[in-house]
Design a protein that fits this description.
Layout: H1 9-33, H2 53-59, H3 62-65, H4 69-85, H5 91-110, H6 122-134, H7 136-139, H8 147-182, E1 188-193, E2 196-202, H9 203-228, E3 230-231, H10 247-254, E4 258-259, H11 263-268, H12 271-298, E5 305-306, H13 325-348, H14 361-386, E6 388-389, H15 391-399, H16 405-414, H17 419-436, H18 445-451, H19 459-462, H20 465-470, H21 480-497
Parallel strand pairs: 3-4
Antiparallel strand pairs: 1-2, 5-6
Length: 498
Amino acid sequence: MVSCRGKSSCTILHFIVEQQGLIKELGRLRREEGDGLNMAKMWAGRFKKEVDEKVNDFNSSISFDARMYRQDIRGSIAHATMLGATGIIEQHEAQLIVDGLEGILADLDDGSLSINPEAEDIHMFVEAELTKRLGDTGKRLHTARSRNDQVALDLRLYLKDELCEIIEMVRELTLTICNLAEQHTGTVMPGYTHLQRAQPVTFAHHLMAYAQMFLRDMGRLSDAGKRMDEMPLGSGALAATTYPINREKVRELLGFARITANSLDGVSDRDFCIETAAAISTLMMHLSRLSEEIVLWCSWEFKFIELDDAYATGSSIMPQKKNPDVAELVRGKTGRVIGDLVTLLTMMKNLPLAYNKDMQEDKEAIFDAVDTVKLCVTTMTPMLATMRVLKDNMRAAAAKGFINATDCADYLVKKGLPFRDAYKITGQLVALCIDTDKTLETLELSEYQAVCDVFDEDVYKAISLETCLGERKAVGGPSPSSVEKQISRVRLLIHEHD
């Protein structure tokens, strides 16, 4: 299962932005000042000259993978614990390493330690800091491990944590929709096809369609988490290791369901990133569809809802404007997240086994997708909760669109006419209404009977919007009783998901 961490999404997002800016600025200052703090490369033994400074900058990932410092240290603590338990290193040294890593984590969390921007990546920074504190003992941490399986582990740990948060956010969004729907099971509005008024529904029924989408999104995110729940550490660079490691011990310490079954796949697999990005992209697509409807509903042409002032903006020149910028931004950011998915797919499409440096590009794409969807969901939820529903405008739109025409045809079918004949007769009545500026409700009975003598006084009850809705009692239909069952079912499924 996906494990949850205690940090709030706002705190994490603030930390990420703050750290990325700080790391870049520190790196710039240190290069300008020439303070001699360039970190020695852990792999420098093979090379006879320094790497070009521009290559260092090009190769570095510390500015964006620094956000994984908690996961990197968690993984290293588990690895060191296993090294000591198996006798690969002395038990007392393993304990020193664990204590040292816990100290680094505490210092990073409270801000007394800053991440060195000269480090190549977060893995090298943590190891260098540990070695600085413990000397040669710190150098033993990387025994029986490669950065290839280390980064694969960190990324899985990070995304497991993030998936849990995203699922919880979507859960809150879906419950907000259920709460809103409960207030509007009797609020009549036109349902649309081709953006043309089609048949009567309720606002609650319309909202619950999105609740179904978000339920599926939660399922997709959860499924991605289940397939991600494999522990790759122990795969080494690509061919495992000759040390007598205990991968099951590490798996247990880190809370994974399984260990990866093939070392080549363990370091080169990024399906879990792609699947997560695909699930997030689908969720964003659903948010975008809802945003599009909100934009339409806010317009004077519809005027079905009014957004709270806290979730709209004005114009610099037109004082009457109240713009649904939040919904528009969600709609726009959807393209960005889909781009992140395409980036990951394109990056991986022609990579031979095993690890390739191209795969460093996975992090910025998946991190951006995660950050963006969290921001969108947490903004959309209160926007929906605070918007004002203009029931009378919805009802007026429903009354003017001949959306009860199908019910008129069904009335004739129940009187014994074939549906196609009933369809044609109703079409003639609609044409008559358009010519005389009337609706089906305001046509005289004599006008009905002039077209078809089967009509009687009971036609008016049959075509009333309340009847049209109330009789659609089929499972999944828009009748108030049916929608109430939908709401109950969604609530139940959400609680079962917990």
